[in-house]
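User: Show me a protein chain along with its predicted structure.
Assistant: Here is one chain, sequence first, then structure tokens.
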Amino acid sequence: MYAFITGATSGIGKEIAYLLAQEKMDLLLSGRRVAQLEEIQADIQQRFFVKVQILPADLSVRSEVYELHKLVSAFQPEIVINNAGFGVVDHFIDSSLDTELSMLETNIVSLHILTKLFARSMTKGKILNVASMAAFLPTPKMASYAASKSYVYHFSEAINYEMKKVKPSIQVLSLCPGPVDTGFAQVAGVHMALPGISAKKCAKIAVKGLLKGKRVSIPGFSMKLTRFFVRFIPTRLLLAISYRLQQKK
């Protein structure tokens, strides 16, 4: 059985690849950095004796997204993990429009396309879309990123419900991590304000939820508590708290 993972060159995506290889799943790994993909491919094949195909692609380019689906579909994957994404941290009027548009293409458009195409082409299996705790509240200085992850979360929830009615052999699940020690902060050009869990721990929770078919996985007890209490805090206060946290980055 093949599992397909985007954003597999580092962080959560890379750790999920290793965990699924331990489960003796063959892998289809995508990312922009070919050298890192080749290194991961060689290491996983040597350690776990599974098949690993690498499929380099830039998911901010729509033509590459469609081509990627075409290539992956030939292997008939039963697990699809839409993990690729990045963030921008700055005041909205100061952040680069081109960078934000590239982020939205990666975080939303490519995920939307791949989810739709795989929901149609797969006969059975699971699609895991990686959102974020930022999906649950508006976040000043990360307005575009938080909005993109809110889209991913609500999009996945709605489609998963639909699939129960029209194609119950397919599940669309979501992962909503809080701070994770990945390359996110480096790409965003910030230092994290709160301590994060390791990418390996996050991946373990993600894979456990995936294999159980858990609708939404939120890694870490503190993040689960945060998700619970956020529902009862007025938006004005949430905005103030979020802004202060982002200012510390």
